[in-house]
Structures are given as C-alpha cells and as structure tokens.
C-alpha cells in the first residue's frame, strides 16, 4: 500500500500517467473503450488521484472523462487490486509517483 504523501494537482497525475503509458490525454479521458491497456492506465490514474488528491470518487470519475458516478470508485478499486496482484503495474505506479515527487521536490538534486 502507498504511504500518505503531499497532495498533487490531478492534471499533473493525469499527465504523468499519459507519459508512463504512452497515451495522449484525450485517449486516457475518452469515453470509448479502447482495450485493456487503456483500462490499466485509467486504473493507475484513479488510484493515484485517490491517494494523492482530496478528490472524491465522483470527481475522479469526472477527471477521467466519465459521467457515471461509479466510474471513479470502480477504477480506484481496480487500481488497488492491480497494485497487489500485478508487479509490473505496481512498478509503473511507483515510477509515476517518483516522477511526480521529483516535479514537486524542493530539495536540490545531487548528481
């Protein structure tokens, strides 16, 4: 399970998820079903927004371009399940978190 960390703006999370999964924002937020790779990216985005923003499940669903209020809750649950069961997914989420943390780090970087 992820540890409590500072809140991050949702657009930053969505941007970093797109980079990690090689998607455009329109693809991530599309209401069309594009296949498993897109679902996994949405799960990661929902999970990170649940952990790193004060957003409700309904707000997370909206940020993902969905109108159905259960979308956010479903994607967060799927993300949590994947985090425990899928090592590749967990590694990708950790990478995204590291990139987010680096963007918001106030400490000087040591080369």
Question: What descriptive keywords fit this protein?
Answer:
mainly alpha, 6 helices, 0% strand, globular
On the 0 to 100 scale, the average pLDDT is 89
What is the N-to-C order of secondary-structure elements (H for helix, E for strand)? HHHHHH
CATH class: Mainly Alpha
Q: Helix share of residues? A: 55-70%
- Report, as a whole number of angstroms, the end-to-end distance: 30 Å
In this structure, how is the largest beta sheet organized? none
Instruction: Kindly provide the radius of gyration, computed on alpha-carbon positions and rounded to a whole number of angstroms.
Output: 13 Å
Provide the low-confidence segments as ranges: none
What is the approximate shape? globular
Percent in strands: under 5%
Give the structural class.
Answer: mainly alpha
Oligomer classification = single chain
Q: How does this structure look, described?
A:
The protein has a single domain (10-104), classed as DnaA protein, C-terminal DNA-binding domain (Chromosomal Replication Initiator Protein Dnaa, Chain: A, Orthogonal Bundle). It has 6 helices and no strands. The chain has helices at 10-21, 25-29, 36-52, 57-63, 70-85, 87-104. The model has no long low-confidence stretch (mean pLDDT 89).
Give the topology:
Blueprint: H1 10-21, H2 25-29, H3 36-52, H4 57-63, H5 70-85, H6 87-104
Short description:
This protein is mostly helical and 111 residues long. 68% of the residues lie in helices and 0% in strands.
